[in-house]
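tl;dr need the bound structure. longer version: we got a ligand (guanosine-5'-triphosphate) that a collaborator sent over and nobodys looked at where it sits. i said id run it. heres the input, straight from their email, havent touched it
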Amino acid sequence: MLIKEAKFIKSSSKLSECPSNRLPEFVFLGRSNVGKSSLINMLLKRKKLSKTSSKPGKTQLINHFLINKNLYFVDLPGYGWAKTSKSNRKKWDEMTKNFLINSKNLSLIFILIDIRIPPQKIDIDYINFIGKNTLPLNLIFTKCDKIKKTSIENNINTFMNELNNYWSPLPDYFISSSHNEQGRKGILNHINEIIK
Ligand code: GTP
Ligand code: MG
């Protein structure tokens, strides 16, 4: 898929505020700081379109970006360890889950996993939440520029083995780096196949 145009549309605090035209939505979800906003910028080749930070908890609302006038990328707040209050984290969690369950336009949810860290309960819980609600899921392992190729393979195997306790068949996955554009073509082609 060629990115001809990408623009920020709006930030919403609940589903009823989200854009009302029913275009397919591709959602980026994962722990705070995993690299959701960076990945969106990398895919779109727009360094500053979605705001990023080294401090977890940057994205706080449901952000819609309109791509080529025919689909949305949706950037969500992270779960897990955002540097914010417990009540804020709960609010984001409810907002996210409500959006995922009730948006009628979800084409695919990408859950992003930091390739460097062992399987986290909160990731497995979110992945299983998506499974229970029979929503479409792919995984993206992020920050692959940070470790060796052999460690990438080992860590993916460890994660998939853990997921094997709950899932059959296992969800498809991509590996990515927002620093060197690894994964860009594969992810965009996949999106293109889905909207065709
Ligand atoms: P929240 O909005 O807080 O949930 O975070 P996020 O998931 O949107 O993460 P964000 O894109 O803001 O990136 C967090 C930090 O990780 C930033 O310092 C990025 O520069 C860094 N980062 C993101 N992706 C990569 C990557 O592929 N490689 C490396 N080395 N760093 C990355
Ligand atoms: Mg973000």
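gonna send this back to them w/ a short note. The helical segments are 36-44, 86-102, 121-132, 149-163, 184-195.
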